[in-house]
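Task: sequence design from structure.
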């Protein structure tokens, strides 16, 4: 990366003013000043002219020049040692940065005893108990419940939390939390003529159907899902 500071340093060492160099390059002083202040950098032609005028290699103006120049003077054996040392320092630095990084967590109140089944179904209760889990994403929702089973694999995992908006039926093919004949599920739902077709993502599960005589309702649309952050939070 071009370094305006190194350009200024060598210019001052040569006891030249910005105007001196600008005139020799046939540019105005303002344009030259932008190189030293980092606002812009010289094109390849002017970079070569600068190096000739200031009697340095074009690579001198790179901010990494001093490090690279010293590295290239090392023997092959010492270059290997230097590379190993730099990699060790970088790994340590990255580790420290990860440890310093504070992960912002957001609480979610989840139905504890009424998991919305993604498998064979769970009973639906009017009295709820909740617990608080945490996620690294903030999402607006109405109801949160655990997913159980494998019928919605690979997208929805056993133990994840589903976030639900109580919007009723929105459109065919969306994923909903539904109540069907005493059980609750998370499924894709399609409205077809006088009935609903209830579909699992896992092909091992057959479609279900809800007809007019069934006890069926849409709890809400699943808008997001996540695996709770391990080691965070408690029961409320």
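Answer:
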């Amino acid at each position: 990366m071009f370094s305006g500071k190194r350009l200024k340093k060598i210019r001052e060492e040569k006891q030249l003013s910005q105007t001196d160099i600008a005139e020799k390059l046939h540019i105005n002083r303002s344009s030259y000043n932008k190189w030293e202040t980092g606002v812009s950098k010289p094109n390849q032609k002017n970079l070569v002219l600068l190096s000739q005028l200031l009697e340095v290699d074009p690579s001198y103006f790179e901010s990494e020049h001093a490090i690279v120049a010293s590295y290239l003077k090392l023997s092959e054996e010492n270059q290997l040692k230097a590379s190993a040392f730099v990699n060790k320092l970088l790994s340590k630095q990255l580790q420290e940065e990860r440890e310093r990084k504070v992960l912002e967590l957001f609480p979610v109140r989840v139905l504890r005893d009424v998991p919305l089944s993604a498998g064979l179904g769970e009973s639906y209760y009017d009295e709820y108990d909740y617990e608080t889990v945490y996620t690294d994403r903030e999402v607006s929702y109405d109801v949160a419940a655990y997913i159980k089973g494998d019928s919605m694999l690979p997208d929805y995992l056993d133990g994840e939390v589903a976030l639900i908006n109580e919007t009723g039926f929105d459109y065919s093919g969306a994923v909903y939390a539904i109540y069907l004949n005493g059980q609750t599920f998370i499924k894709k739902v399609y409205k077809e003529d006088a009935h609903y077709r209830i579909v699992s993502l896992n092909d091992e599960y057959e479609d279900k159907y809800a007809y007019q005589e069934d006890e069926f309702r849409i709890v809400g649309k699943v808008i997001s899902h996540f695996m709770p952050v391990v080691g965070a939070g408690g029961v409320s």
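The beta strands are 106-117, 122-123, 130-135, 143-148, 161-165, 175-180, 183-192, 195-199, 208-210, 216-226.
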